[in-house]
Each structure stands twice: as C-alpha cells, then as structure tokens.
Inverse folding.
C-alpha cells in the first residue's frame, strides 16, 4: 500500500486565502507529515485534507465579524483555528489544547506560518485560569470536540455577552440541538440556530450550531 498523498491547492482555496496561499499549502504539508507521525490526524485523512478539513473549517469565516477575537476550544492540530487565522489575518485567535504533543505542534505551526496574532494555551477550556487568559471573546469555536451541552458549559464562560459559540457539527446537528437546548439555555445560551456555511465553496457545506451568550449561567435565554 502506497503512502497517502495530498493533492494541490484547489482554485477555491487559492481564491479564499489569496496572498497567504503559500502558508496554507505549508500548513497542509505539516498536517500530512508531522501531523500523521505524531498521531494528530489519521493517514486516511491526508488525501481529503483540502475538502474535508481546510475548506470545511474556512467556511466559518462568514460567521466572524472583522477584527473578532476568537478562541478555538480543543484545537487539536489547529482545525479550525489555524485555518481561520490564515484565511482572516484580521482575527486574533487563541488555540486552547490540553495535550502537550498537540500544543507543541501548534506552537511550531505558529512560528512556521508566521501567525503573529495567534497564541497557544495549554489547558482545558473549563479551567478557571483559562477564563482569565482568553475570556471575553467575540466567538468560541470548536470542531468535533464534545456534545453540545458540554461545549456550552466550556464555551459560554469564555464569551463576552452577546458573543457567539460556533460548534461545527455533522448531519445530526438538529437532533443534538433538540436534545440539549434546555441545558444550553440554563447555562446562559440564547438564540440557538443551525447554519450551513460555505455553500458553493465546500460540498457538503459546514453545519454549524450557533449559540449566543445571553447572560450569567442560570439566567433565562430565548431560543
């Protein structure tokens, strides 16, 4: 069996990343090599890095305001935080990850890709000191990290009031919202909705559960 290879940058990605296309190509190379050998992604993911991972993550840019402060919870190999930082250099991005081998990779990516507005934080989103370090964010993002109720417990305290939790989910997003909506509201969430992002850019579009932070945990929100 041959070693999986990653294809060239798709035209849609080149248009999206513009002058930073060379950096995102380098990031994909890092994922396909060091990312695999360190166990951060599976080798079967390499041939579909562009469509399944890079473009899927980049689709979130349409939900982020100019100059937003963003926290990537459970960043792993930097998906989606590193991708968003490459696509939108106006963003200030904090990558939060608890495992040392992952934070080491993220730190190396930050230096290699010259991401001056990215910081790497080793720890758990629910830790009290993490709120002090990266709290009051405009958006907290996550991708394939945990069920919606746990994500809300971790993410909402890191947001400013009116900030938004953006949880990238799969085909079962609506069912997950129905299951966990009451818990999310109790935790201080409001205006829960499911959005499809990247229509016409990535197939299928990214499915994102969007939750606004209304107020203090325990307060009433509105769905």
């Amino acid at each position: 069996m041959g070693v999986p290879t990653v294809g060239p940058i798709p035209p849609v990605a080149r248009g999206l990343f513009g002058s930073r296309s060379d950096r995102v190509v380098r990031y994909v190379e890092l994922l396909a090599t060091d990312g695999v050998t360190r166990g951060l992604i599976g080798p079967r993911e390499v041939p579909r890095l562009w469509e399944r991972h890079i473009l899927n993550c980049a689709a979130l840019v349409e939900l982020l305001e100019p100059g937003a402060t963003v926290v990537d919870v459970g960043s792993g190999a930097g998906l989606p935080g590193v991708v968003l930082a490459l696509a939108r250099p106006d963003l200030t991005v904090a990558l939060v990850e608890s495992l040392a081998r992952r934070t080491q990779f993220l730190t190396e990516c930050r230096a290699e890709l010259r991401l001056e507005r990215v910081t790497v934080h080793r720890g758990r989103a629910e830790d009290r000191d993490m709120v002090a370090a990266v709290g009051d964010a405009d958006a907290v993002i996550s991708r394939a990290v945990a069920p919606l109720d746990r994500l809300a417990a971790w993410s909402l305290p890191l947001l400013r009031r009116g900030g938004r939790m953006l949880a990238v989910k799969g085909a079962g997003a609506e069912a997950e919202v129905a299951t966990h909506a009451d818990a999310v509201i109790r935790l201080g969430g409001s205006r829960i909705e499911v959005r499809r992002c990247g229509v016409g850019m990535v197939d299928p579009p990214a499915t994102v559960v969007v939750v606004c932070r209304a107020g203090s945990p325990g307060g009433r929100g509105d769905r």
Remarks:
- DSSP finds nine helices and seven strands in the chain.
